[in-house]
Amino acid sequence: MKRILVTGGAGFIGANFVRYQLEHGDEGLVIIDKLTYAGNRASLAGPLQSGRVILIEADIADRTAVDKAFHDYSPVAVINFAAESHVDRSIDDPTPFIDTNIVGTYTLLEATRGYLRQLSTEGRRDFRLLHVSTDEVYGTLGESGLFSETTPYAPNSPYAASKAAADHLVRAWHETYQLPTLITNCSNNYGPYQFPEKLIPLMILNALEGRPLPIYGDGGNIRDWLFVEDHCAGIWRVLHHGRTGEKYNIGGGNERTNLQIVDQLCAGLEALQPAASNEALRRRGLTSYTQLKTFVADRPGHDRRYAIDAAKIRAELGWAPALDFESGLLRTIRWYLENRAWSDTVLAGKYRLERLGEGS
Ligand code: NAD
Ligand code: TYD
């Protein structure tokens, strides 16, 4: 069986991509994942029983482990999802962001370079490494304009800076060593299996438990939201049909302020699990989810607006999001309502939905 090496496959987007690949592709998957707080076997329960997925618990910065995976499974492609991914955590402690996002990506590039030297001409010709990145590398937008592939990098958080550094390494390994690389820069994702430290799942779980919904600053910051399966479909197209050495922006064209998101989540929860039937709210004497909205101190260096121009991937590869935001959000709320056991499992570690990243 041909195999794709997927790093970070036990995380949010990785676990969704594994499912997407099992449904749409023929290749099997070898996952390298360190299983940090954000990576969970529970997110791969079904795929691990498919007979097409192997999970190796290892750090992408561990060259010996990465070399061994290449040697044992001879992958035809690599997709690098592995990363520390939460801006607030990068404010509290940037160290793992440097270790994984920069040193880890560097190690993966070097291991790939070594592996390619041993491949036949034909194997080398077909091989590709896709590095998954973010629109946050471009910094912040004002009230108008969109990020395109030629927007200069101007990262503002330690997370964004570490991803920008990784993108530069990938670019350099293509230019210098002719590594057949591709980079995707995507906007904010939402959907099943997202660790509940990020805005949407955090708000859903807090609301269900009758806890405050912490809105940073004035709630006017804008993100461009994309359902995770649409992101996976974009990655799949870029992997199979993108031009090596190129980067592709992926975005949903769904700009919303954080306040709009929280209001829409409250309305969606009301429709699916009315506040009147929620014991946690009743105990606090509350009659609606919106009463939980709470404005808190802003995130330091908080980017005001992200928005993606996805014209290149649309025109070159025919990609477009399949799901509209309203349906995607309802699907997501329903998934978190029906999968409380998953949330309980991934929250069994140290993190208990508390505020992170206030800075000092
Ligand atoms: P996530 O935090 O949910 O998952 C990250 C995964 O990487 C986890 O399974 C974790 O265990 C693993 N990991 C962390 N350090 C590792 C290491 N040193 N070695 C091996 N595995 C390691 O992140 P996500 O939201 O799924 O994001 C995946 C990728 O997509 C990241 O590169 C992120 O920068 C990028 N991205 C995310 C978004 C988003 O909205 N979530 C948007 C655009 C791009
Ligand atoms: P987040 O999900 O952390 O993604 P990112 O910072 O990578 O965009 O945050 C999305 C937006 O929501 C961002 O503007 C910060 C804001 N936010 C809150 O207002 N409250 C919260 O508790 C969290 C986690 C985020």
How is this structure best described in words?
- By secondary structure, the protein is of the alpha/beta class.
- Helix 1 packs across helix 8.
- The chain is globular, with a radius of gyration of 20 Å.
- The strands form 4 sheets. A 7-stranded parallel β-sheet has the order 3-2-1-4-5-6-11, sandwiched between helices. The chain has a two-stranded parallel ribbon with strand order 7-10. The protein has a two-stranded parallel ribbon with strand order 8-13.
- Strand 5 (128-134), helix 6 (158-177) and strand 6 (181-186) form a beta-alpha-beta unit.
- The mean pLDDT is 97.
- It has a domain at 3-195 and 227-253 and 301-324: Rossmann fold (3-Layer(aba) Sandwich), CATH 3.40.50.
- The chain has helices at residues 12-24, 63-73, 87-92, 95-118, 121-126, 158-177, 199-208, 228-241, 258-272, 279-283, 311-317, 325-338, 340-346, and strands spanning 3-7, 28-33, 53-57, 77-80, 128-134, 181-186, 189-190, 213-216, 222-224, 226-227, 247-250, 255-257, 293-296.
- The protein is 42% helix and 15% strand.
- The protein binds nicotinamide-adenine-dinucleotide and thymidine-5'-diphosphate (TYD).
- Thymidine-5'-diphosphate binds next to helix 7 and strand 8.
- Thymidine-5'-diphosphate (TYD) is lined by residues 87, 188, 198-199, 202, 214-216, 221, 223, 258, 299.
